[in-house]
C-alpha cells in the first residue's frame, strides 16, 4: 500500500471517530463557543466554528509538540 492510501485511510478513520464522539464533544460546549459564526436565514443555515477550530488546532499542536520531545 502506498503512503497516500494509508494517509487517506487514517483521515477517514479519524473522521468516523469524530462523528461517533460528536455527542460527547457537544456536551463540553465545543461548537458553540463565542466567536463561532452562525448565520440563520429563511433558506440558509451556515455554521462556521472559527473559535472551536482554533482551540482544537492549539490542543493538537501542543500534543504533537509533547510527543516529539
TrEMBL record:
InterPro entries: DUF2905 (IPR021320). The keyword Isomerase does not apply. It comes from the Bacteria. The chain crosses the membrane at residues 7-25, 45-67. Pfam families: DUF2905 (PF11146). Keywords: Membrane, Transmembrane, Transmembrane helix. PANTHER family: BSR5223 PROTEIN (PTHR36443). This is DUF2905 domain-containing protein. It comes from Natronospira bacteriovora.
Amino acid at each position: 500500500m502506498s503512503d497516500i492510501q494509508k494517509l487517506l485511510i487514517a483521515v477517514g478513520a479519524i473522521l468516523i471517530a469524530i462523528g461517533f464522539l460528536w455527542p460527547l464533544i457537544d456536551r463540553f460546549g465545543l461548537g458553540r463557543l463565542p466567536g463561532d459564526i452562525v448565520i440563520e436565514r429563511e433558506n440558509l443555515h451556515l455554521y462556521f466554528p472559527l473559535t472551536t477550530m482554533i482551540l482544537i488546532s492549539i490542543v493538537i499542536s501542543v500534543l504533537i509538540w509533547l510527543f516529539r520531545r
